Amino acid sequence: MIKVNKLFLTGAVRVCIGLALPVLVLASQATGQTRTFDAGGNGTSWTDPANWSDDNAPDSAAESASIDAGGAFDVDLNSTLTIANLTVGADDSLTVSSGNLTVNGTATTPGTVTINGFGTFITSGAWTNTGTVVFDAYTLAGANGVFTNAPTGTLAGSAYNGIGYVGSEFHNEGTISPGFGPGDGKYLTIATTTYLEPTSILDIEIGGIGNTNVDFDQLYTPTSIFLGGTLNVSLFNGYTPTPLSTYAIVSGYMTDATGEFANVADGQRIMTLGGEGSFLVTYDIDNNYVALSDFQPVPEPATAVLLLPAALALYRRRA
Question: What is the pTM of this model?
């Protein structure tokens, strides 16, 4: 058990401030008519009235939006508007590109939500994700709401720089992937009290020793975090780490940090998913990081055969 002044991980994930960047704010729940996306207009634009039931695009705090009509719709928002509640169905997707979407109530997303470039997504109530949320932007910030990434959910970053989420608290029960897909080293910032629950999975990819936003993944948090769940480590780009290389996979100026990943304790080794070798895991909370180091490759079969006689001879001498 590790204790630091506030990072908590309980399961198996940077915020950049000062730029006009994408924001997610979780902050009273409104009720009213629900508009359903039916793609009757141009098929993609939120602001095209013909794309919604009753040919009326939801754009007021008294209206809720449902992108869940079984049509695998891809909806793009590049305007500023406020609605009551939001649902994005399992086969559907919503991209908040250059727009500002404020949800006064709750958001439920079994589908895919992408917040990129200069988009802003603000929700005042709880946000429950059972699908995929892609933070394809510099900053995702929020307040006054609880964000839960459910066991089936994936939280991914894909921007060159960090992505952040600010809210009352973040509970990860699903998968956190700072890079979105194989060979995509990135960092992901969670700037709120973070709980990595027992079902949590943190996927870390390592393809070099240079930059955290290019060569290897990092979960960055400047606040409280509870460590837990499962840590997975993969190599990409054919990269083979050296024993002297160190990778801070969880970092930040944490005010409090507690716990360890369930599958690897401090001072133990973790094998890469591809079986290339293992890393030593260090929980150095006093210095605000969890690190991988001392990579030891698995010997090639031919090498292992050559080493076997020497090992047997050493064993016999000791016997």
Answer: 0.82
